Known about the structure:
The structure is a single chain. By secondary structure, this protein is mainly alpha-helical. It has one domain. Helix 2 runs antiparallel to helix 5, helix 5 runs parallel beside helix 9 and helix 14 crosses helix 15. The longest helix has 54 residues. The chain is globular. The C terminus is likely disordered.
Amino acid sequence: MKAALKRVTGRFDRVGPGVQRIIGNMSWLMLDRIVRMGLGLVVGVWVARYLGPNEFGDLNFAISFVALFGAVVPLGLEGIVIRELLHNVDDTSEILGTTFTLRTAGALIGAVLCLVMVRLTQAHDRQALILVSILSLTLIFQVFDTIDLFFQSQVRSKITVWAKNSAFVIFAIVRVVLIKRGASVWTFAAANSGEIALGAIGLIIGYEVGGGELTRWRVSSSRALTLLKQGWPVMFSGMAVMVYMRIDTVMLKAMQGDFAVGLYAAATKISEVWYFIPVAIVSSVSPAIMKVKHDVALFESRMRKLFSAVAITAYVIGSVVAFSSHFVIHLLYSSAYSGAAPVLAVHIWASVFVFLGVAQSPWDLSKDLMSLSLYRTLCGAVLNIVMNLYLIPKYSAMGAAIATVVSYAIASVFANAFSAKTRPVFYMQMRSLIPAKFWDLSDERGDMLHSGR
């Protein structure tokens, strides 16, 4: 992994130790997602083949339904907490303790809302009730991802990788055992919850072994108010993101049934598996970008390079997956899922706009533009719902895919053009989409990989 990054920069030997830590951290995050992408895809496909489109659709409906309410758990605090940990090292215990408490409250609220809403909307679907009830437990266990924020601020993501990948591998084996034993669909929902729980235990162990002490965490009401005040736009933005990522599955079930959901889920499993790439890149380089926010030229130069890097990556992935969609679906899922191939060929292009949207986060955080991020995302969510209402009855799963690509494009890129504060980002994003500009990375002053800053 590091060797590949050396070739990209061409001058790795001249970078400082801080940059080497960034690249090392990025390598761990990439390794984490590659393992999950490889093993997860194999086991996930096996589960899909075993359950068939209908039960696979039912399981994915439950996962999406819980995810809609799970968006409240992070409270929009990820980037803000990392920034606070970087700038207020002496207050680490207070920041972590307060964040953990806030997220616990958010998880309980989310779980209760989830259970109430599924009973109101799916009262006659006993299997959906069972699956959602089991999966709602994941919201509680996700609270411990607070520890991961600390590791990210320390550029020590390898601890998180070990903790979560261990849980992932163990429960991948559990899923195979369930298939071999002819288990019911609800046991696979239980495996999802078990994996998140075991990952949380791993984070706790990693934190304690690394010198941290959970018992030292403390809660500050004043800091809680400050965090909530800064985080609420991101929280609602995250909820809106989850709406237009998951509402299509919920609406598909309501309008077309479990079979359509199964086809759509099969396509999106392959399409969305790549979304780890911009997250890994941005989480690793954000500290280097935000530290130079007062140097406008250097800050913007680093942002341009980030947009260019994620754009070309998305283009390559989109091209390969779109042209091989029929082969991939038939190879992985069998002919029972053949209807998912054209859906995949369309849905994969959402990755271009997802990548660019994720890459924008350092700009929004550095310039305190969380409220604008919220408005953009709400616009995308509303557009997605409206388009789904029109397109799903006409084109089923394909309609949901089209709605997703368009809404992502509006929310992540084109909406930036309507505000003077984000218009520079819009120009950077559009510039990154021009092939001739992809390799224009020659600005020595702004090269984060060659700067010791």
